[in-house]
User: What shape does this take?
Amino acid sequence: MKKLPTHIAFIMDGNRRWAKKRGLNKMLGHKKGAEVLVSVIKELNKINEIKYASFFAFSTENWNREQKEIDAIFHLIEEMFEKNEQEFNNLNIKFVTMGDISRFPVVMQEKLIKVQENSKNNSGLTVLLALNYGGRDDIAQAVNKLLKANFKSVTEEDIKRNLLSYPAPDIDFLIRTSGEQRVSNFMLFQLAYSEMYFPKYCWPALTKKRLYKALKIYSKRNRRFGGN
Ligand code: FPP
Assistant: This one.
């Protein structure tokens, strides 16, 4: 492929619909979704050009779901690291969380902090996990940091340097599965010039073949960034 994204992002949508279509419990949709997430991380880490991968794992709106479903998602996040942390580290993958994790169960917070700490010197793929994350809130907290530092006016560059994703560059390519065509308050500032792709299949149905097809689609896009 001629051109690959440096920073790729995913809105992992359609876990419940995937399960429902198969007559399965919705929790199984999330379980399969978590397995796909692990495979995608490992596959992207093999591609040298891709340095950053962001995933919308839990939005500020997801708190509105049944407690049982929320607990199941939390459990899957913890389990993902329990089962794979060693391998992720051997593969040199770095993890960063974005969002206010203080509302999560203490054990999960501790796990997430430890995962970041243990992987902070890794130089392979950086995985940015959005947890209790909102794109507008990301911009607001950046501005608040600047106000605290006594800035009288701010530039785009100042905001960029204080986003939760910093130092990751702007997102080159966003994939949202399940056919929904919207960004749902995900990394609004970082998505300004990103190419987008909205395949119809649900997140648990994302295979390696489909991932490479998506990358091929990106490689053919003509990015002009508002110029000629
Ligand atoms: C969207 O499907 C997905 C989520 C709400 C969160 C993503 C969760 C996972 C991939 C599972 C585990 C997470 C991690 C980080 C290991 P949906 O429930 O909105 O499905 P629907 O659109 O069909 O209702």
In short: Residues 12-17, 30, 33-34, 37, 57-58, 62, 73, 76-77, 80, 178 surround farnesyl diphosphate (CB under 6 Å).
